[in-house]
From TrEMBL:
It comes from the Bacteria. Residues 1-21, 340-360 are annotated as: Disordered. This is Maltokinase. Residues 36-140 form the Maltokinase N-terminal cap domain.
Length: 495
């Protein structure tokens, strides 16, 4: 971030509220947030009652007007406390209490025009905004425009710091992308896309950190960030929270998921694209390994990896009882990681022996949640990777740890299976051929086929399918049969 324009005081109105004011504001919004927040797709704490809201920071990007049509824009960082309670319809499970921090951008008006009706959160009862309507600001072009203005002129505003690495043109017309996301994104003038992170954490967010590192490396496989904003004043030595990243918008690109479904519908093989995707993934991995530290995982760390996968399996089976009959079969994939002589450790990403014997696995920074929906093919036929946030449900420290690169390969292999399974009739051969072509392409670019790391690949594929079971149970219960079919296969049950 050192090359970025440095923070200096920012033009225009706006100010941070003092802690007491921020607290009063969030208290007055609490009844509305209770009702609205759990309904948002990006709210990660679904299925558990909210026990409280508290203010981390509140900043007026545009102070609410006393009256008249001018909208105010409030930037809130809100801590959401949730009790440890049973999850879904499952028997009690040890889901620990959480207090996650969410980023909210709220518009404030005295009356909401009809075109913003869908963005309405509600009318505030008490406190400084009593009688005003608050709404999801990203739906309001005037407020989306204001956010871009902040990014165009780097500087500090209370706890918020806006940085940019290039000049950004003014007057780009904003549009909000569809709601099916873990975060929220605004496209400006079909030239840039601003991703607003919703659940935010102290520490460098890989969604900014990795594209910046790849840009330094000269990688053309990832759109490089041109501006970003953070909260820097988290108190008591807390690291900054990454809040948003602006990147070039890949106009007229299509994502790999849509293209794969279209190929299935048209009876096309998709193997050429799968091979190209394998090469693109490999190129990103090579660039990440060159840009950021890599480590070797010895037998003990590999055993820890297997234990963590096993623990996730147990916790998920508690939360989603349909997984229970498969636990023993699935665990064999994790147990195999701790045995030597099983093909693990022979490929490019797991090579050599530890001093005391046993395999050594190479680990590096990875994408962490790679699937077809995270790939974009531009009109010139090139593939890019996006969304380096990692699996949103995992802690940031875990997501930022170097990991075996086959983890991403496994994610993409799962995705070909997902695509085939979500098409009627099911085409298992289509998925098999794509999976194979993807590994071929990956091997061509790295000189080593990921299938050589058979045990590691199977373990990661199993771990990913377990993650997907929980993800679908929480977010899209209708999709649960898709990962469950893979669970059936990976556990060694008869078709
Ligand atoms: N640079 C880009 N160019 C074009 N479209 C993009 C770009 N980045 C993201 N998108 C689109 O925005 C969607 C959401 O972005 P993503 O980073 O995956 O957000 P989330 O973490 O909320 O899922 C993607 O599925 C893709 O369609
Ligand atoms: O929101 P993100 O894109 O960061 O990722 C989450 O949502 C994904 C679904 O939108 C989910 O991916 C799963 O479904 C995909 C099809 O919609 C499929 O291609 C993936 O293979 C499958 O894992 C992802 O796991 C989740 O983290």
């Amino acid at each position: 971030m050192s090359k970025a324009a440095s923070a200096r005081s920012s033009p225009g109105p706006g100010a941070a509220l003092p802690p007491a004011g921020a607290g009063r504001l969030v208290d007055s919004l609490t009844p509305l947030l209770h009702e609205w927040l759990p309904r948002q797709r990006w709210f990660a704490g679904k299925g558990r009652p909210i026990t409280g809201f508290s203010a981390v920071a509140a900043t007026e990007l545009m102070p609410p007007a006393g009256s008249g049509p001018t909208p105010g824009l409030l930037h809130l960082l809100v801590r959401v406390e949730q009790r440890a309670t049973p999850d879904l319809d499952a028997p009690p499970v040890p889901v620990p209490p959480t207090d996650d921090c969410y980023q909210l951008l709220l518009g404030v008006r005295s009356a909401l025009p009809p075109e913003l009706a869908a963005a309405r959160i509600g009318v505030v009862d008490t406190g400084p905004l009593a009688g005003r309507v608050v709404y999801e600001a990203l739906h309001d072009p005037r407020l989306a425009d204001l956010l871009l203005e902040r990014l165009r002129s780097p500087g500090a505003l209370g706890p918020l710091r806006f940085d940019r690495s290039v000049e950004i043109p003014a007057g780009l017309v904003p549009r909000l992308l569809g709601a099916e996301q873990s975060n929220s994104s605004l496209v400006y003038g079909e030239e840039y896309i601003l991703k607003i992170l919703r659940r935010v954490f102290p520490g460098a967010n890989p969604d900014l950190e990795l594209p910046l590192a790849l840009a330094r490396q000269g990688s053309r496989r990832v759109p490089s960030p041109v501006a970003w904003f953070q909260a820097v004043d988290g108190g008591a030595g807390q690291e900054p929270l990454t809040l948003g990243v602006l990147q070039p918008f890949l106009k007229d690109s299509e994502d790999g998921w849509q293209l794969a479904l279209r190929a299935l519908a048209d009876g096309d093989a998709f193997t050429g694209e799968a091979r190209a995707l394998g090469r693109a993934t490999a190129e990103v991995h090579l660039a990440l390994a060159a840009a950021l530290p890599t480590v070797s995982l010895g037998p003990r760390q590999t055993a820890n990896l297997a234990d963590a996968m096993s623990a996730r399996l147990d916790a998920t089976a508690q939360a989603v009882p349909a997984l229970m009959p498969y636990v023993t079969g699935l665990r064999t994939a994790f147990d195999a990681l701790t045995r030597s002589g099983n093909g693990h450790g022979q490929g490019a990403h797991g090579s050599g022996e530890a001093a005391g014997g046993g395999p050594v696995t190479r680990a590096q920074r990875v994408h962490g949640d790679l699937h077809l929906g995270q790939t974009l093919r531009t009109p010139d036929g090139e593939w890019s990777l996006i969304d380096f946030e990692g699996e949103p449900a995992r802690p940031l420290t875990e997501r930022r740890r170097p990991q075996p690169a086959v983890r991403d390969v496994a994610g993409m292999l799962r995705s070909f299976d997902y695509a085939a399974r979500s098409h009627e009739p099911w085409h298992p051969d289509w998925a098999e051929r794509c999976r194979s072509a993807y590994c071929d392409g990956y091997g061509e670019a790295t000189g080593s086929d990921p299938r050589e790391d058979a045990a590691l690949l199977r373990a990661y594929e199993t771990d990913k399918a377990v993650y997907e079971v929980l993800y679908e149970a929480r977010n899209r219960p209708d999709w649960l049969p898709v990962p469950m079919a893979a669970i059936h296969r990976l556990a060694g049950h008869q078709p």
